[in-house]
Design a protein that fits this description.
Elements: E1 2-6, H1 11-23, E2 28-33, E3 53-57, H2 63-73, E4 77-80, H3 87-92, H4 95-117, H5 121-126, E5 128-134, H6 158-177, E6 181-186, E7 188-190, H7 199-208, E8 213-216, E9 222-227, H8 228-241, E10 247-250, E11 255-257, H9 258-272, H10 279-283, E12 293-296, H11 311-317, H12 325-338, H13 340-347
Parallel strand pairs: 1-2, 1-4, 2-3, 4-5, 5-6, 6-10, 7-9, 8-12
Antiparallel strand pairs: 9-11
Helix pairs in contact: 1-8, 2-4, 4-6, 7-9, 9-12
């Protein structure tokens, strides 16, 4: 069996590659990635030592490259994780998001349609295209309720809008052409290999260096947090057991405000790297990691609350998260503390942890 993972050098993608290697023996995993700022082969250093893993550099928005990918590797499964995903960057410039998330998904679906149409009946029956999306397509919730698979789409950021459009394309290719497409919509992921522009790794690295921990607005925006390893398990269940044409919401059942996340992170750091032993804090005469918390201007169009109803995937595919938020955070903080080499390498010349997403009128 050959499995193509687009965006496999990114955060969720690299974790998925390692998960697939633990699940499949003797199968091929093809990583197709453009290697933008958020994708790095250093995340796949151990995976690429496996003879069953092959890396192909390419852009999912390049139709000819996508067609070659299908012809050359003849996949049974395609899992599309290639995406521009940082909301703040989409506020500053939506063009890359439209190209990758919309045009790229279209090219992958179109390539899959022609490839799948030429397969023999047995292979056609086994082929699956899994499109990985986000809960942000549903918009913002009030104080109660949760997103189900039937919740109407109401995206509020350029990022969310391009992912919503991609979801609609995926559904249309099933309804119109019969392409066996499955869509998953996940909540906020966290864990190893996440690029430091995102909340949790940004806060970990800033805290270690005694830098401010910037919390947007009042810090009370709520997200459902999903440990990335659990998400990878859900994706494997969806692509191997999911029903074509269906969509599955994937959540961690761990609602937290952004402020709660930062306080939890500070507690984990205090346990693993006590502030009294952190030279950066001692030099600045800071007694606690929590003293670094700083409130900053809110993100434009910041959704107030997300929550996932993951009962369908539990009921139909038998999946549920295996890690609670406290355990997942402990694992995450420990990983970053032990992998400063990775943090330095992926940021070098690409990102200095500056604030993004502020609207600047020219």
């Amino acid at each position: 069996m050959t499995i193509i993972v687009t965006g496999g050098a990114g955060f969720i993608g690299s974790n998925l590659v390692y998960h697939l290697l633990s699940k499949t023996k003797g199968d091929r995993v093809i990583v197709f990635d453009k290697l933008t700022y958020a994708g790095n082969l250093y995340s796949l250093l151990d995976a690429l030592k496996n003879s069953g893993v092959r890396f192909v550099k390419g852009d999912i928005a390049d139709g000819k490259a996508v067609q070659r990918l299908y012809r050359q590797f003849q996949p049974q499964f395609v899992l599309n994780l290639a995406a521009e995903s940082h909301v703040d960057r989409s506020i500053e410039g939506a063009g890359d998001f439209v190209r990758t998330n919309l045009t790229g998904t279209f090219q992958l679906l179109e390539g899959a349609r022609h490839y799948w149409g030429g397969l023999i009946p047995v292979a056609r029956k086994k082929f699956r295209f899994l499109h990985v999306s986000t809960d942000e397509v549903y918009g913002s919730l009030g104080k109660s309720g949760a997103f189900s698979e039937k919740t109407p789409y109401a995206p509020n950021s350029p990022y969310a809008a391009t992912k919503a459009g991609a979801d609609h394309l995926a559904r249309a290719y099933y309804e119109t052409y019969g392409l066996p497409v499955i869509v998953t919509n996940c909540s906020n992921n966290y864990g190893p290999y996440q690029f430091p522009e995102k909340l949790i790794p940004l806060m970990i690295l800033n805290a270690m260096e005694g830098k401010p921990l910037p919390v947007y607005g009042d810090g009370l925006n709520v997200r459902d947090w999903l440990y990335v390893e659990d998400h990878c398990g859900a994706l494997w269940q969806a692509v191997t057991r999911g029903k074509p044409g269906e969509k599955y919401n994937v959540g961690g059942n761990s609602e937290q405000t952004n402020l709660q996340v930062v306080h939890n992170l500070c507690r984990q750091l205090e346990y693993l790297l006590p502030s009294r032993k952190n030279r950066a804090l001692l030099e600045k005469k800071i007694n606690r990691y929590e003293d670094l918390i700083t409130y900053v201007k809110d993100r434009p169009g910041h959704d107030r609350r997300y929550a996932i109803d993951a009962s369908k995937i539990k009921r139909e595919l038998g999946w549920k998260p295996q890690h609670g938020f406290a355990e997942g955070m402990k694992r995450t903080v420990s990983w970053y503390l032990s992998r400063m080499d990775w943090c330095e390498r992926v940021q070098s010349g690409k990102y200095n942890r500056q604030r993004l997403g502020l609207i600047r009128h020219k």
